[in-house]
Fold this sequence. Notes:
The protein is about 45% helix and about 15% strand. The protein is of the alpha+beta class.
Amino acid sequence: MCGITGTIDPGRDGGALEAYVRTMADTLVHRGPDDSGVWVDPYSGVGLGHRRLAIVDLSPLGHQPMASASGRYLVAFNGEIYNFRALRDELSAMGHAFSGGSDTEVLLAAVEAWGVAGAVPRFTGMFAIALWDREARRLYLARDRMGEKPLYYGWVGDVFLFGSELKSLRAHPGWRGRVDRGVLAAYLRHNYVPAPYSIYHGVLKLMPGTVVSIDPECRELPDPVPFWDVRGVAEDGHLAPFEGTDAEAADRLEELLREVLRDQMLADVPLGAFLSGGLDSSTVTALMQAESERPVKTFTIGFEEAGFDEAPHARAVARHLGTEHTELYVTPTQARDVIPALPGLYDEPFADVSQIPTFLLARMAREHVTVALSGDGGDELFYGYSRYGITTDVYGKLMRLPGWLRHLGAATIRMAPPARWNALLGWAAGGLAGYGRASLGDKLHAAAGLLANATQEAVYRRLVSHWDMPEQAALDATERPSVLTDRDRWAKLPGLPERMMFWDQLSYLPDDILVKVDRATMGVSLEGREPFLDHRVVAFSWSLPRHMKERDGVSKWLLRQVLYRHVPRELVERPKMGFGVPIGEWLKGPLKGWAEALLAPDRLRDEGYFDVAVVRGKWDQHLSGERDWQNHLWDVLMFQAWLEAQ
């Protein structure tokens, strides 16, 4: 796992070009503390920079940027190609000789043998690749299928820049960054910046599963070319569904996950797993332990606050499996102390509050291992989120009501503020205590928004939105379109649950979950691996009929059948807790001064990104307890903190 960066800076002399690229690479030292390298070609103006976290082949033979055997190709590569040994055997049979044991050398040999278009689809793994073809004078950028590894790129004036994180682009002296207000509005809706956008105008994220070819002589960015896409896999799975029995499906899923884990457990450094005690991480850990001859190292963190502590569940699973378990109970002060580091860690506005415990978990694990596997992706692949069932149920019930009655119901709910509904319906609060963390009044107001929406897509979009009308808060902004608004990107799938899983795999998973994990782990020089996101597992999940994912109201049905073979169901059968912190209460207490400074009216007015009245209105209502606006406010605060750090 590493950090990559570079430039096409025509006309720059070799010394200056090398110095610039080295400075860019050094901003990524946290992603690769073990080694650094720079390669430049003054004639073409191309420079590649690399920071190395040594995982496979720890010797100098893994140094990057690396040249191919013929010298035609130079590469800076971030990630892991898990099937590199099989590719190496195939290439050796074709006559290729290898001097080291790294997957980078195999990557280059594959490109020499099959070309970029032929080689990249053969790679199984997570990767962001920058490859310079000296003969064709083209820079190729490639990103893995599910978007596990990040890659930003774009022309800034006459200079082309790319990198694993935006901070490496900003380190170039030619950098000129301007906030894209339309992207700011999209960020307020989603709590993350959706691809292909970055927060900066003209700088993009490379879409997962694509390759883009950059011509140094052309200032227009070409469209990336897909080598794999979730849409095609989802549609193929629907057209050719799995036709075996339940037992056969469980056998196939376990066999496939074990095959993936055998690849992903290969490392020349200590390796472990994140374990929350939930279904996904418990499945990964159980199968890792089944494949291991020694106790797997597992890690979890706990919180003293009621409703946020998963450590006892993880401890029970670890004890049953016999892992070497480490847990850390985090105090509220320790968690809050992470907040000042978030803008630099995430490097663009990012407001998933579980970023805090994820970072704490990664930091603790890094004291013991260099690689950690996790269960991310299980929810999106196997019908894990409650919103899938809620949206389907709500939409079905709404469609039984005439439109005028839905709008009347919404208007009636909005006539009273949430605090008033809480007072009127306090008798019902006890029965809903376990259903989420928002107040009953806030839930009713959210329901009012759903009543006013008529289509399946609109209901879903409303459920996953923080700011439902972000342009009211973001000044001079027209919200950028996303996968939830662009019908041309939608897969042809039979039902609403399938479409929701598809939308999540195309947006929420790569742009929120995987960003969170990548920045948290790489921020402490820890490599995170995601077994569920192997493209073979993704394809198999799409071939499964819905009743194998959700049955009789039970989510992740098939995944549970695999897990129950290794862990008693009573250890993992519990309501989904999530991975959060009580940020709403902290904003009223210990974080109040920090937030007030970032939301000061004069400051908001001078910066000119937000409507002062809208933001301050929500802040005042939150402090008074009239409304719970923690998600909306955290979105604004994370942007403000990021802006301050620039």
